[in-house]
Design a protein that fits this description.
mainly alpha; globular
């Protein structure tokens, strides 16, 4: 139990810390897809330490296929998240992650014929109601007009892609191990984020002046993913996802502390309501 609690704490804190570093790197001249690629590439080199303990020939086709698909959606999700952070406030974009639970319920209704409970419907209402306070701090307010903003569009895309990625990560863990899942997450993430970078037609050299921050980002991202894998392997995924929502509150606090973002009290209140709604959606569906 101590190990799971420690992993949860690491996951909850490392995620918003990584977002802070990603945002700061883009503010100092690094292109989002460049930050994305170097994070995966650096972690891929670290993964060479694990090669002696993995027999790649014994891994099933399910592991390989899930790892490839997870790499594609992970590279896309992380890339669009960094692009969103480049343009928008961390204290605004962080809480939007609570909508992942709404999206999960929506897809459950369509594909799995899962009818939401009364608690689930209340959870959706709370997430939407809480987001009213978040979006009301923007000039567009709580309206469809805010969906025209690039940072919001990129954050929604990141939310969708990372939600899909989580399914494949869990599948790799179930059919192999935490370490195998981490290694493949890094390697295939580097491969597909490199393809995204080439498609973006930006130079790889733009991040050289931020080498120390890139190293720190690699560390926080690696800690985040390893702790996520450990929690998934030792806890019901629904409970884990609910607890991960605590990062939302930290995103608001970090946005205020590191980037002097405004309307923090209102964002904090809205985030807290969204957190309750997301937990209800995940645990009481």
């Amino acid at each position: 139990m101590t190990g799971v609690v420690s992993a949860l704490i690491l996951r909850i804190f490392s995620n918003p810390f990584s977002n802070v570093l990603q945002k700061h790197l883009t503010q100092t001249g690094c292109r989002p897809f460049c930050v994305n690629f170097f994070t995966y590439a650096g972690l891929s080199l670290f993964c060479l330490l694990f090669l002696g303990g993995i027999n790649f020939f014994k891994l099933s086709p399910v592991v390989w296929s899930s790892a490839v698909l997870g790499g594609i959606f992970g590279a896309l999700g992380n890339g669009f998240l960094i692009k969103a952070l480049e343009r928008g406030d961390l204290s605004l974009l962080g809480p939007i992650n609570s909508y992942k639970s709404v999206a999960a319920m929506f897809f459950g209704i369509i594909f799995l014929k899962e009818i939401p409970t009364l608690a689930g419907i209340l959870g959706i209402i709370l997430v939407i109601y809480g987001s009213y306070f978040i979006f009301d701090t923007q000039k567009e307010g709580f309206s469809f007009a805010i969906l025209k903003r690039r940072d919001i569009q990129y954050r929604i895309l990141a939310l969708i892609f990372t939600a899909i990625e989580a399914v494949f990560i869990k599948n790799v863990i179930l059919h192999s191990s935490i370490i195998v899942s981490f290694v493949f997450w890094c390697w295939f993430g580097a491969l597909f984020s490199g393809i995204l970078l080439i498609a973006d037609e930006k130079k790889l050299t733009v991040c050289k002046t931020n080498f120390k921050e890139l190293i720190l980002l690699m560390i926080t991202t690696g800690v985040m993913q390893l702790s996520t894998n450990y929690v998934f392997n030792n806890m019901n995924v629904s409970y884990a996802l609910a607890l991960f929502q605590l990062s939302t509150i930290l995103s608001v606090v970090f946005g205020w502390k590191f980037f002097d973002e405004k309307h923090i009290k209102k964002k904090f209140f809205g985030s807290f309501i969204m957190l309750i709604g997301a937990v209800m959606l995940i645990l009481m569906k």
